[in-house]
Design a protein that fits this description.
single chain; about 110 residues; 3-stranded parallel β-sheet; about 15% strand
C-alpha cells in the first residue's frame, strides 16, 4: 500500500475495499462527511465487500486529487478540489479552530 496515514497510528483502521479491513468498512459506513485526500476512490475500494455495502450513499464527499479527471469518476462528489493533497490538507488545517474536533472527544 501507498498509504499516507501511518499503519501504527492508534486511529488507523486499515484500507477499504476488496482487500481491505472490515473495521474500516464498518467505520466509514457511519460517516456523514468523507474527506478523500489524494485517492481516486477506485471500485476496489468503494464496492461492497464482505457482504457489506459500506460506502455511505448519503455522505457528503469531498475529493482532493492532483488529476482533475479522477475527481467524481467513481462516486459523485459534493466538493471536488484539484490540487496537491498535502497542500490542500495544510490549507484546511490552517482554517480550523484550535479546538476543532474536541466536541465529544471523550466519548470517541
Amino acid at each position: 500500500h501507498n498509504d499516507a496515514f501511518p499503519g501504527n497510528h492508534p486511529l488507523y483502521a486499515g484500507p477499504l475495499g476488496y482487500n481491505g479491513s472490515k473495521a474500516a468498512m464498518e467505520l466509514i459506513s457511519q460517516a456523514d462527511v468523507i474527506l478523500a485526500l489524494g485517492t481516486r476512490l477506485n471500485p476496489f475500494s468503494t464496492l461492497p465487500a464482505y457482504g457489506i455495502n459500506y460506502f455511505p450513499s448519503q455522505a457528503k464527499l469531498i475529493q482532493v486529487d492532483i488529476n482533475e479527471a479522477r475527481i467524481g469518476l467513481t462516486k459523485p462528489v459534493t466538493v471536488g478540489i484539484q490540487g496537491d493533497a498535502a497542500m490542500v490538507a495544510q490549507g484546511i488545517l490552517e482554517k480550523l479552530a484550535p479546538v476543532a474536533g474536541d466536541a465529544d472527544r471523550s466519548n470517541r
